[in-house]
Structure formats: structure tokens, C-alpha cells
Design a protein that fits this description.
The complex is a heterotetramer, with two copies of chain A (79 residues) and two copies of chain B (141 residues). With 79 residues, chain A is α+β, with helices and mostly antiparallel strands. Chain A has a single domain, classed as Ubiquitin-like (UB roll), CATH 3.10.20. Chain A has helices at residues 8-11, 29-39, 41-45, and strands at residues 2-6, 18-21, 49-52, 55-56, 69-73. The longest helix of chain A is centred in the middle third of the chain and has 11 residues, at 29-39. The termini of chain A are far apart. In chain B, a hairpin with a 2-residue loop joins β3 (41-42) and β4. The chains are: A alpha+beta (79), B alpha+beta (141). Chains in contact: A-B, B-C, C-D. Chains B and C meet through α1, β2 and α3 of B and α1, β2 and α3 of C. β2 of chain B pairs antiparallel with β2 (30-37) of chain C, so a sheet runs across the interface.
């Protein structure tokens, strides 16, 4: 399974802050983004950063592994 | 001793943080600190409360990296970063940053660098609750 | 309430100073502080004690002017300057500077400006007492 | 009378940290500097700043008034 997390303004545009996606061999970050942004286009308007396993990732071609944690995040506004 | 990098709901004590910082070395000549507080006005709108949300595990990892980088980059003797994730009202503390160095220039540079970088790199979000409703804060460039 | 500008023998409490600063306004978004401490080494020599001497009336007048100028120049909401005149040992506090502003840039700029100017303008002298004798500190340019 | 104060390294080169000089009409800061630096040349090697009534003065032609307080000071090293 892939664990998907949404935060801040992004989370308000999806039904749940957290969801699970089935993992399949050869899966890339791009596949998850494509599927979820089709399902929740409004949420993805707020996405500025994506992290895989708590590290920011810019390359959508990143191969995923079973058990990965992906986070979709709006611009940070802490501090 | 408390951890030098923390995310917590409860308030922090500057006195306690600085005491722990100072206990780390007798070579400290200057300590620069920054405390971010909740204001009752933001862009002309009255704000009653501010609530924070964090991607906790990543935020903590980023804050630790930030501290390590600051210590290395500015040759600090010690540094601390504490961020509250809670609902706060005007005057309440939000974030505490401290940099201790042999001389003041490095302490100031490092303290400022850490808060600037924290705002860029640490996954925490701020929502302002006003009498007219709630809104997420959009950071300025 | 204590005076925002003071010269005193006894130690100060950052917590108390910051609390008084914060009590002055609900518009404060950032507070930058600087604490100068006594180090056990200076230019490679072990230092056992540091003693301070001030031209008290002029030093206080200059520190008050400095605070007024900083508030004006950086649009601060509040500022405090406390300098100890005492004999201190490694780790002891010497000077406290705080600048409170709506936003952090002004707070940092003002805090740094005040300590830089204090060193230039305020008639206080520092003598280092080492195992080999005493010597007045000559400021670097 | 003119009250004269010495501070820090300057004070260590004079017999007393404080002295009184008689005031005379038309007296200028220059007169005090000339008299004291002749008496205490070592002290004046350390003098970087002079203040009259707690205000730094650069113009040695400044006329003095009875009761003025003059301070001779080395470079500051507080903070």
C-alpha cells in the first residue's frame, strides 16, 4: 500500500486527510499524482510541494516502493 | 535537558531555552534569539485566533537538518528551534529560534537564516480565525 | 514595570524583559533579542573575570537616545536595553537588547543596529582579569 | 569650578578619577585639555573621546561654563 497524506489548505479539498492506494510494481510518483489530481482537481490547485517519505521530491518519475508515504502540501506558512 | 529541536503544543520558556543553550559551552560570547508571536491584526483584518497544523515527522526532520546546517555554516556553538503547533491568540508565542556563537555577527546571521529557512522549508501551516471566518495564510514571496 | 533602558549591577531575566516588551502591544509579530555573555577565552588568553566600568549618567543618556532612535528608524513597537556594570565570570550575562516589531526583518535589523551602536557610542569599559594580570579591552575597529 | 572625570584605562594613568579645576571667564575646552595633558601625558595617550556635560564634543574651541563636567574617555568596550 501507498499511504497518502494531505495537509493544510490541500486537506480541506479532499474528503479525508489520509488515504491508502494499492501499490503496484513499477509505480511512479507521477501515477499517484495523475490519479489523485483527476479525482480531486481543486485540492491539487493548492499543492506546491510533494514529499515521499518525509523528503521533498521534485522528480515525478521517482519510482515508488510498497509502504511509501506521500504527502501533498500547500506552501508552508509556519514561523 | 530538553531536545534542542522540538514541535510542541505547550508554550516554551525563553529563559529555560537560553539556560540550556548557555550550559553547552563557556565560549559563548553572543546569543541571538527570535520569538515569533501571534498578532491581533494581519493585513488589516482583525484576527481572533491562529491555529497551526504540521506534517510532524517531516517538520521535525527538516528543523533538525536546519539546526545542523546552521551550526556548520555559521560555526555556532549551539542552536535551538522550537515551534508550537496549537491554537493561539494575540500575544502568544509561536516559534523560538536561538543561535549561540563566540561573536555576535555569526549569532545574528544564523538566527535570521534559521527563521527565514524555516518558513521556506518546514511543513507547517497557519490558519487565521477572524470574526468573519477562517482562512489559511498564503505566504508572501 | 521596569525601565526599558537600565544600567545595573545585578543580572537580568530575559523572560521578564520579554514579558514587559510583549505587554506593550498586541501587534508584535517578532521579537529579536541579543544577549552578550562573558567568555572564558578572549584572543587566546584564559579569562577568569571581566569587570565593567561606566560613565553612568552619560551611558544611560546614550542608551536612551539609542532606543529612541531605533524605535524611530525601524518603526519598532518597543525596545529594551539593559547593561550590567559588575564583575562577571564565564557564562554570566553582560548585556541584553530586544527589539519588537510587527515583522521580523525590522526586529532583527534594529536589534543588531542597537548592539553595534552601543559598542560605538556608550561609555562603558571592560577589563579582563586573567591568571597573568588585568588588561583593559581594546575594541577592534 | 570645572569637574573633570577620567574613566577606564585613562583613569589608571592619573592619581585620582576625579578632580576640580578653577573656572575662569573665557575658558575653553582646549585650555583644560592643554593643562591636563601637560600634567598627565600618559593618560592622554588613551583619550579617544571627550564629553562636556555627558555629551561628546569634538570642537576644542567649545567655551566652558562654571560647573561644567568634562570627561576624558578611552575607546568604549562595553557590550
Amino acid at each position: 500500500m501507498i499511504r497518502v497524506l494531505f495537509f493544510g489548505p490541500v486537506a480541506e479539498q479532499v474528503p479525508a486527510r489520509e488515504m491508502q492506494l494499492p501499490f503496484s510494481a513499477g509505480m511512479k510518483l507521477q501515477d499517484v499524482v495523475a490519479e489523485l489530481s483527476a479525482r480531486h482537481p481543486q485540492a491539487f490547485e493548492f499543492v506546491s510541494f510533494t514529499a515521499v517519505n518525509q523528503t521533498q521530491v521534485r522528480d515525478l518519475q521517482l519510482p515508488l516502493a510498497d509502504g511509501d508515504e506521500i504527502a501533498f502540501m500547500a506552501k508552508f506558512s509556519g514561523g | 535537558m530538553s531536545e534542542p529541536v522540538r514541535i510542541q503544543e505547550e508554550d516554551f520558556s525563553q529563559e529555560a531555552e537560553i539556560a540550556e543553550l548557555k550550559a553547552s559551552s563557556k565560549r559563548i560570547g553572543g546569543i541571538a534569539t527570535f520569538v515569533g508571536c501571534a498578532r491581533d491584526f494581519s493585513e488589516g483584518r482583525a484576527v481572533s485566533e491562529i491555529s497551526f497544523e504540521a506534517y510532524g515527522s517531516m517538520a521535525l526532520a527538516e528543523m533538525r537538518k536546519l539546526r545542523d546546517e546552521a551550526i556548520e555554516k555559521f560555526a555556532l556553538l549551539e542552536a535551538r528551534i522550537v515551534h508550537r503547533v496549537a491554537t493561539v491568540t494575540a500575544g502568544d508565542n509561536i516559534v523560538f529560534i536561538a543561535a549561540a556563537a563566540e561573536h555576535r555577527a555569526a549569532a545574528f546571521d544564523a538566527c535570521r537564516w534559521m527563521i527565514d529557512e524555516l518558513k521556506q522549508r518546514v511543513p507547517i501551516w497557519k490558519k487565521e480565525i477572524t470574526p468573519l471566518g477562517e482562512s489559511w495564510v498564503t505566504p508572501h514571496p
